[in-house]
Amino acid sequence: MGHRVERGIESLAPDLADQGGEVLQLLVGGRLRRHFEPRASTGHRTVLSPQRPSSSPVPGNDRADRLLRQELEEAATLWTRNDQGVRLQILTSVTSLLSVSRMEQRTLGADVCVGAVGLGCAGMSGAYGRSADEQSIATFRNALDAGITFIDTADHYGMGHNETLIGQALRPADRDRAVVSVKFGALFGVDGSVRGINGRPDAIPNFLGYSLQRLGTDYVDIYRPARLDPVVPIEETVGAVAEMVQKGYVRGIGLSEVGAETIRRAHAVHPITDVQIEYSLFSRDVEDEILPTCRELGIGVTAYGVLAQGMLTGTWRPSAGDARHRGHLPRFAAGNIETNLALVERLREIATSRSATVAQLAIAWVLAQGRVHRDIVALVGASRPRSIAEAVDAAGLRLTEDDLDAIEQAVPRGAVAGERYAPALLALLDSERTGGRR
Ligand SMILES: NC(=O)c1ccc[n+]([C@@H]2O[C@H](COP(=O)([O-])OP(=O)(O)OC[C@H]3O[C@@H](n4cnc5c(N)ncnc54)[C@H](OP(=O)(O)O)[C@@H]3O)[C@@H](O)[C@H]2O)c1
User: Is the pTM of this model over 0.90?
Assistant: First the structure.
């Protein structure tokens, strides 16, 4: 297969050059550099010379590489048909492939390779006010096109609406590229009141069956209990999900908001792919015990609340409508919000010095915490294409040591006012029982 790709691409390259130098510059400047190198360049014409496929392997990127080569092979084969319409489509898809390949990759668990920024879909089902399905679907597709591959949902987001929406947005051709993470087990009353957690083994095939139906897929990439069920040993919950892995309905097992001891117990039953937990400039408890434990065991971290539910963006403003959705969050409550917004303003200065927004600085800070180990994904909650565009650019923002020092001084750990959840919800968090305070 390798040989055919190389020949195909060699003939593709001069033609692409005829279409204008930009696409070719992308080809040469992007990750393809590892497979192809420029041999000669005169004006717009650059000839690519294939390297041996194994010439510069990058650990953790094998799956993405295989996908890229396979898709380029298809593009090269189609290109030889010499049909203008098809060629234009190929140019578009090669450009989008290259943006996929340009996003930094992170590895969760042993081998789940995903873009460093992930997409959190809760806001597409009313978590922060009214949402519009059409806009959400556009946001979702923009995210995939831009190289975001980790997609997070839960069966309770919008009481199933979120999974149904993802089922509509996720095209069959994109299914393999997406890593769909689903949380299960959170129970609510008909009126939306919180009713606890169900992590019982006999409930899991039932939850999963409904999720698969709504998502329109026959497997979930990462399946995780939304919270630890206090009356069911984690071994039993994970053991039941492991049976779903054996049957092919689930590919990997994740956890959410659990402490170090639970992580160890779960991992002893079945390898855990990632722990999803709040981690941001405002929420740094995980640094004490949870993150080191994950690193010791080779488990990834999918950080949520990276933007502190929209506050760490510098654009959030209080409004009467918003009070219904964020009003229950202590950090947005009167008495705390003033302190927290003042912290955001301190970040604005640093962001401006890097020609970035506060949101981008906050995302880049989380990504910087995982740069060495390549094990942290910054999950960004977004329901508008514009939020995706900013998040994708943030993935390319490399903070220097000086930037990180300035950020630390502007928002020292523990400076935020208020807990991250109201007391009743905080009480459901196993992570809070074993972690520090902020
Ligand atoms: N495991 C868990 O327990 C758990 C708990 C909560 C959330 N999560 C997951 O994590 C995801 C994100 O977490 P989160 O809900 O805490 O939210 P977040 O990412 O901290 O904040 C989301 C909010 O920020 C806004 N936003 C995004 N980019 C922006 C930008 N560039 N400028 C201005 N505003 C911007 C979004 O607006 P728009 O919607 O208008 O784009 C949304 O209102 C959720 O969707 C969910 O998948 C998991």
Answer: no
422 shares a domain with 401: yes
Residue with CA closest to ligand 1 atom 31: 387
From 125, 142, 304, the mutation candidate for ligand 1 (largest count of ligand atoms within 8 A of CB) is 304
pLDDT in tens, 340-387: 999 999 999 999 999 999 999 999 999 999 999 999 999 999 999 999
Q: Which amino acids bring their CB within 6 angstroms of ligand 1? A: 120-123, 127-128, 152, 183, 256-257, 276, 304-310, 313, 315, 359, 379-384, 387, 390
pLDDT tens-digit series, residues 30-50: 434 444 444 444 443 343 333
Task: Say how many Å lie between the CA of residue 307 and the centre of ligand 1.
Answer: 7
- Strands of 85-208 (E only): list them: 105-108, 112-115, 117-120, 150-154, 179-184, 186-188, 194-197
Domain count, the chain: 2
- Are 277 and 422 part of one and the same domain? yes
Judge whether 219 counts as a catalytic residue.
Answer: no
Cα of 362 vs centre of ligand 1, distance in Å, is 12
Domain final residue, candidates 102, 130, 159:
102
Q: Which domain holds residue 200?
A: 107-434
Examine the domain organization and report whether 59 and 125 are in the same domain.
Answer: no
Name the residue with the closest Cα to ligand 1, atom 41: 382
- Which of 77, 102, 127 is the endpoint of a domain? 102
